[in-house]
Design brief:
Helix content: 40-55%
Low-confidence stretches: none
Number of domains: 2
Mean pLDDT: 90
CATH superfamily of the largest domain: Ribonuclease H-like superfamily/Ribonuclease H
Order of helices and strands: EEHHHHEEEEHHEHHEH
Strand order of the largest sheet: 6-5-4-7-8
Distance between the termini: 41 Å
Largest sheet: 5 strands, mixed
Shape: globular
Number of helices: 9
Structural class: alpha/beta
CATH topology of the largest domain: Nucleotidyltransferase, domain 5
Number of strands: 8
CATH class of the largest domain: Alpha Beta
Radius of gyration: 20 Å
Length: 283
Amino acid sequence: MVFNLDPTADGRLEVHNTEKRLRESVAAIERILSTKSLGKRDALVLRGRLAFCDAFIFGRLGKISLQAITQHAYAKPFNTSVDDILSGALQVLRDRMVVARPRQIDLNLIHTFVLFTDAAFDPVKGAGLGAVLVGPNRTVVAWFGLKLAMTHLQPILREGRQTVIGELETLAAAVALRLWSRILTSSKLLLFIDNEGARFSLIKGVSKAPAITAICSIASQVLDEFCIMPWFSRVPSLSNLADLPSRDVSHPLLLLDLRTPHESVMCVVEESLKSVGETCRPH
């Protein structure tokens, strides 16, 4: 490991891998991608080595990719062939070894924000998204409420499904993170959500639903880029302040001058849904 003390004058300490360890890890991944083969023992050794390296690279995307190596090692029946999923995960890990930011200890760690998110869905009327950000001083910093027509939801609508509430609940969290990422930079974040499926997906970073996995990836990228340290927890719907703006209901704490402009929210939502649609499009 390397401890970089240069930025301590700015209240920051950086911890990362040695160049030698990074070179060895990248070379190991390149060999596997080249041969398209990975034995069980080698997979477990590789996972241990990469997990150590990834521990000093801030973020969640690496943990998600490491799961693919574990699944390959314990697959029954076992097959040494590297499939597209594992190949993609290895490429992500390789790129992280080269360009990802080191783990940082920042003075902003003393700040803890609270984020409430919620979504509503009606197959006729459409959907609603809401989020409320509370600052370290326990006052509302920003909030948004947005209505979406069914036409907006095409990228996440799946044939035969009666509802897409899981996708929408996850999307509300991802959109809030994208909107307020700079406010949350290098801080601790308690994210409260009243949908257990969406909460567990955000914790794991993956879901059986491809659209939710794609949305989780958007959230993870923001958390990585801005060094946000999240804790995902459940809040009862009646105690979820974001339940109100998701249904276009006012509240004394939700002052109009704290509302994030509709255009900004819609822009992030449309970009996110476009990304999900491209990720989930059949090849």
